[in-house]
Amino acid sequence: MYESSAAPSSSSSSGWPALYAAVALGAVFGLLSMAVALAVAVLVTLVKSINVLVLLAFCGKPRRALVVEGKELMVEITGFVLKILIKEGNFVAAICVVVGYFVLIRRRRDEIGDAS
């Protein structure tokens, strides 16, 4: 009788709770990595756009042309940076999901092995 109450049910040992936890873990770490990368990307984008505008000014471009080209460059650079941030955030989230799932499944198997 004691053995039957200690045996895990088939629904709790299926691994679904571990999958849900791993997905939540991956989402959190993906968002955190995107936030950190965004903080760095903002500074890099500013420095890069200032460098480009200074180089264009040294080439003899008039101020109005610098403003127009500066706006175009900022939009282009920002779009490129955002695409990279989204890809890297998804990549980190996917890695965290896979690693978290296997760690949680292994821990669950160890707990089940210790209980029997």
Description:
This protein has 116 residues and is mainly alpha-helical. It folds into two domains: 24-61; 71-115. Helix content is 87%, strand content 0%. It is built from three helices and no strands. It is rod-shaped, with a radius of gyration of 25 Å.
Topology overview:
Blueprint: H1 2-6, H2 16-58, H3 63-115
Key words describing this protein structure:
rod-shaped; mainly alpha; 3 helices; 116 residues; membrane; single chain
The separation of the N and C termini measures 13 Å
SSE series: HHH
Strand content: under 5%
> Which class best fits the helix and strand makeup?
mainly alpha
Helix content: over 70%
pLDDT < 50 stretches: 1-7
What's the average pLDDT?
A: 78
| Main sheet record | none
Give the radius of gyration. 25 Å
Number of helices, where a helix is a run of at least 4 consecutive DSSP H or I residues: 3
What is the number of beta strands? Answer: 0
What is the count of structural domains? 2
Overall, the morphology is rod-shaped
In short:
The protein is 87% helix and 0% strand. The protein has 116 residues and is mainly alpha-helical.
